[in-house]
Amino acid sequence: QVHLAESGGGSVQAGSSLRLSCVASGRIFSGYDMGWFRQGPGKERELVAAIDNSRTWYGDSVKGRFTISRDNSKSEVYLQMNNLKPEDPALILCAWRTFYQGSPYSPTEYCEWGQGTQVTVSS
Questions:
Q1: What would the mean pLDDT of 79-101 be, rounded to a whole number?
Q2: Using the 8-state DSSP alphabet, how is residue 60 labeled?
Q3: What whole-number percentage of the chain has pLDDT above 90?
Q4: Is residue 36 a contact partner of residue 92, using CB atoms and an 8 Å limit?
Q5: Distance separating alpha carbons of residues 47 and 93, to the nearest angstrom
Q6: 115, exposed or middle or buried, with CB in 10 Å at 0-12, 13-18, 19+?
Q7: Which of 20, 13, 11 is nearest to 115 (CA)?
Q8: What is the C-alpha separation between 25 and 41, in angstroms, rounded?
Q9: Neighbouring residues of 64: CB distance < 8 A, sequence distance ≥ 6
Q10: Is the pLDDT of residue 109 over 90?
Q11: What dihedral do alpha carbons 71, 103, 65, 21 form, nearest 10°?
Q12: From CA 72, how far away is CA 84, in angstroms rounded?
């Protein structure tokens, strides 16, 4: 069973940066897609960014501001969040893609989730 642990969230001012980390354990990390999703109150989970071993995918609202990366030797995936905006706050969750039947943007492709880390942005 996969265990995912996020860290790095916090409360910042608009225009600031945060770097989130997610460390995975319980399964060989390389070869699996990883994703970062956000979930606002009463909203569906929405992809922020995803990565396989050579490609990345981003939600439209974060393109050009956020960067996803991974270090397979450490079983970690990162999300560099720059120029944070007041509309960015949410619970940000790390996810391990389990199914490869659809789009990496769909939360139904992911079966393993972390507890999430909260990001708050003040204007």
A1: 92
A2: T
A3: 80
A4: yes
A5: 10
A6: exposed
A7: 20
A8: 28
A9: none
A10: yes
A11: -30
A12: 27
